[in-house]
Structures are given as C-alpha cells and as structure tokens.
Amino acid sequence: MDENYEPSRTDGEAGRVGKDKKKKKKSWDYDKEIGRLQVELAHLQAWIKKSGARIVIVFEGRDAAGKGGMIKRITERVSPRVFRIVALPAPTDREKSQIYMQRYIAHMPAAGEVVIFDRSWYNRAGVDRVMGFCSDKKAQRFLELAPRFEAAIVESGVVLLKYFLTVSEDEQERRFRRRIDDPLRQWKLSPMDVESYQRWWDYTRVYDEMLRMTDSNHAPWWVVPSDDKKRARVNCISHILQSIPYERVKFEAPDLGKRQKRPADFVEDLSVRHVVPDATS
C-alpha cells in the first residue's frame, strides 16, 4: 500500500484532524526538549566517567544534512575531555601509505571517554569512491572488511553507534543557497559540497550500497531523517541515550569551606596592566 495513502474523510473529520495536528504542532517546544536531553547527557557523562565506559559515535550522511549542528547540541553542555570530537582532515602522504584503518584506530576512546567521529572510516565508501580518491576495488574491499573491523571494536567492550543523516534534494539545495548568501555560513560551503550537489545520484548509489553492506547486528546503521533539523536532533539524541544503559550517578557536592583572609602583609601590585577596552560603552 502507498505509504502516503489516507482514507477519505468527511469535511468535519478533516477539520478535526487539522485541529489535532495544529494542536500537536503547537505543543512542540524544541528549546525545552533539547534542554532536557542535555541534562540527561550530563548524567550520561557522569556515569561514563565513573564506570570507565568507552563510547564511539559515528556521524555520516549527506552534505548539509546537519551533522555539525547535531554534534554541537550533543557536546555544548558537556566536557570536551570526556566527549571528544574527531574530524580528520585529508590524509597526508604518510597516512596514505598506512593501513587504511590505522589513522582511525589511533583516536579510539580510553576508559571514561566518548569519541564522536564527524565523518569516519566510511569516507572510503562515500567521498573517496565518488571522487576517485580510491579505486572501486579498494572501496569494495573496505565494504567487506568494515563489519569485521567494527565487530572487533564491539568485542573489545566499546559501545559503537552509527548514524546516517539524510536530507532531500530540495532541502539540501535550500541549505546550500543559504550558505552562499550568508557570510556566517559561507565557510561551510566547500568545493566537495558543490561536487556532492552536482553528483547527487552518484552519492545515492554508493550510500545505498554502504548502508546495505555494513549494517550488522553488532553495529547497525540508524538513519536520521533531517529535513527538520530540530526534530532530527531531538530524535537522535534521544536514541543515543536509550542505546546506552547508563544510570544516574549521585553528585557528591564538595564542601567549599571558608576562603582565606587577606594577609596583613599583602601589598597590591600597581604595575601597568593591559586591560581589554570596554566595547559596549
């Protein structure tokens, strides 16, 4: 049956459904919900530090699908010493001569850490393949070996979560054009983004094969529809929290004690200091 099929309704029923949808939309409070989830991420962080858990979260997806904003909402209220973001640049000549997975293994978490890959080893199955940075034979070999590599990660005790953010053609174009027009977003538009826009169907083909061949019981892909960025963030962060069996850790409030008194022999240093001018006056 067509997923968009809806049985016919009378005018009264249609009006009632419209009111229900409007009421549901009105009750949606993104700021409140994202704030609640960030509190839970703080509780998750405390549990990770105490338990010594090791978490890897992989974010892949279409260009302009919202990976950066997603990662920002996850990490903006937690410690960068616990939640570490890895966004590797293009490999150096030395790294190109290494085993492909080598540069990623070096960034795996130690006890009490979360590593978030803003793009990952799956570059080999996506941009590298489409842009000809690797041969089709190497890409196919990667797709065969990736599930085994991830099985080794999971068997070592690491929690591995993989998310693929999708965006429609129309929405991706709207976001690219907004980047062109907005000086605060122009830095986000790279030559690779332009290529991905022009070669939409080449990327579609390789991403479909990647998701099909590297989805496994031990490391499944979770697809995040992202035309609505706010809903995508709430849905994805909720799923992360549900996927990790953490417990709330009781916060042991420290005793601040009393501040020391000013020493009787203390002399204020009156040497010249360079003070930042007040730009608000």
UniProtKB/TrEMBL annotation:
Keywords associated with the record: ATP synthesis, Kinase, Transferase
UniProt-listed GO biological process terms: ATP biosynthetic process
InterPro entries: P-loop_NTPase (IPR027417), Polyphosphate_phosphotransfera (IPR016898), PPK2-related (IPR022488), PPK2_PA0141 (IPR022486)
Catalysed reactions, as listed in the record: [phosphate](n) + ATP = [phosphate](n+1) + ADP
Biased composition (Basic and acidic residues): 1-18
EC number: 2.7.4.-
Region of interest (Disordered), residue spans: 1-25
Keyword tRNA-binding: no
Top class in the EC scheme: transferase
Pfam families linked to this entry: PPK2
GO molecular function (one): polyphosphate kinase activity
Superkingdom of this protein's organism: Bacteria
Annotated Polyphosphate kinase-2-related domain residues: 27-250
Subunit structure: Homotetramer.
Homology family: Belongs to the polyphosphate kinase 2 (PPK2) family. Class I subfamily.
Functional description taken from the UniProt entry: Uses inorganic polyphosphate (polyP) as a donor to convert GDP to GTP or ADP to ATP.
Protein name as it appears in the record: ADP/GDP-polyphosphate phosphotransferase
Source species taxonomy: Bacteria, Pseudomonadati, Pseudomonadota, Alphaproteobacteria, Hyphomicrobiales
